[in-house]
Amino acid sequence: MAGGLKRFAANRIALFGLVLIAVIVGAALFAPWLAPYPPNEQFFEGLTLEGAPLPPNAEFWLGTDQLGRDLLSRLIYGARTSLVVGVLANGVAVLLGTVLGVTAGYVRGVVGSVIMRFTDLMMAFPALLLAIALAAIFQPSLLIVALVIAMVNWVQIARVVYTETTALAERDYIEACRALGANWPRILFRHIVPHLVPTVLVYATLGIATTVLLEATLSFLGIGVRPPEPSWGNIIYENQTYFATAPWLVFIPGAAILLLALAFNLVGDGLRDALDPTQRGR
Amino acid sequence: MAAYLARRIVQAVLILLGVTFVTFVLLYLLPADPARQIAGRSATAATVQSIRQQLGLDLPLWQQYLRYLGNLVQGDMGRSYIQRTGVAPLVWSRLPATLLLMAGAIVCELVIGLGAGILAAVRRGKPADTTVMVASFLGVSAPQFVVGILLLYVFAVRLQWFPIGGYGTFAHLVLPALTLGILGGGWYSRMTRSSMVDVLRQDYIRTARAKGAGERRVVYIHALRNAVLPLIAMIGLDIGIFMSGAVVVESVFGWPGIGQLTWQAIQQVDIPVIMGVTLTAAVFIVLGNLLADLIAPLADPRIKLR
């Protein structure tokens, strides 16, 4: 892992991703101090006389939305939504996927088969459609959206962890541990789980990118985070009818979603290169 | 081969059975009261009760599930809460448009992905390679609805090269297919690059060069086949991504397929329609996986059937 860190630090593209994440996390943390206006305040002077949103100007740096609210403030607060959902949903997915994957891979037998057949089943559902169905049945809130995304996203991690665990469990050193009389918790937690950390770390990072995109998509379809609570996806959902006359209302939040997903993809890819020696030199 | 085929088909059928069980649970157990939903707000208690009996909601669970399965086999996917019609005809009438869109998207993702991937592999380490890799990262990180609206804004609103939405002519297809294909194009460009780089390092390529084959011949005749055929054989695995993407792309472009049907159903909380589309999509995904498993060994004989 130490050599991996050094390799990661030498990867400029991955570091760029890390800086991007730091900026967005900073914006989310310090939102009340950074945002020029309260995110839900509607300004009378925030709309033209015809009632159209304002383009970027000195008073509202990124312009206003269709209700005369400051876009920059909504974006800054929206970063909170994206990150909270992203980290929460992905955290649950990673935890669930890892526990199920390790269990299936280490215990094998009937339990293992049942778990893996269940992941086969989940793979047959298109992620977005399943999330839509769940979100439509349960009235969406921030927590529900996060859980729905977690329910859809744990599968990939479980499969990867399962494959790695089965491979590890068959290695000679595990056999040696058993011969030396180590009990199963010791083998599992001291000799198998630590080797899974790099893989889980990589997939956890890449998974946040997927999660951020899924949250944005659900919010864009109107079944994610409910307005007036700002999320980058629902800002676009609320303002998409203006895209021809007020394109900034779509493309600025769109760029924010892109940058956040890109940042986690870059860092995840950098981690994979740094932690997996077989991938180097490509 | 026959035994393998038989086993894979049995597996596919079992997975589809599981899928129907999940859609059954989502359709009949989780929503508050399906009978009331179908009857509508103004219905009397007696009407709701008769609908409940009609649907078999008063039967034990396993009987309800068997009924649901029996109906599915006969092509009956239940009734829409909102539109007073069956779900199956709704889905059937929308399916051709989605399949057309997917065909267009496959063409786009292969053209973009293979072209960019080969370029990057051949120019490995040069600016063209870096550009392609950055672009592929942007492609897989971009939310599809933003890509769609961006293409719409630039090519339909500003340049007016293409219609702003709708269905019917080839011009209508271009932007939606491109939007749906960009994500896959990003993945394919990375996989093609890495596969090409691997193949170009192999001994037989060196032999070909040593025998005096030109660079073009080496890349396009000797390397391309081995690097790219296995990737194309896996295209059936993309159907899941397309089925999800179709919801977004069709709602942005007003494309009258099952994605738009889903979007309309979302607005009206019409759960039977959402489940009907989900079930249809799952059938296509299982078939796509089966197809990929069967074709892959043909494209790459090193893959052994298990």
Automatic annotation (TrEMBL), chain A:
GO terms for cellular component: plasma membrane. Belongs to the binding-protein-dependent transport system permease family. It holds the Pfam family OppC_N. It comes from Skermanella aerolata. Gene3D superfamilies: MetI-like (1.10.3720.10). The keyword Chaperone does not apply. Residues 79-268 form the ABC transmembrane type-1 domain. This is Peptide ABC transporter permease.
From TrEMBL, chain B:
SUPFAM superfamilies: MetI-like (SSF161098). Coiled coil: none annotated. It is found in: Cell membrane. GO terms for biological process: transmembrane transport. PROSITE patterns: ABC_TM1 (PS50928). Pfam families: BPD_transp_1, BPD_transp_1_N. One of its GO terms (cellular component) is plasma membrane. InterPro entries: BPD_transp_1_N, MetI-like, MetI-like_sf. Residues 95-296 form the ABC transmembrane type-1 domain. Keywords: Cell membrane, Membrane, Transmembrane, Transmembrane helix, Transport. The chain crosses the membrane at residues 12-30, 99-122, 134-155, 167-188, 227-253, 273-296. It is a multi-pass membrane protein. Belongs to the binding-protein-dependent transport system permease family. This is Glutathione ABC transporter permease. It comes from Skermanella aerolata.
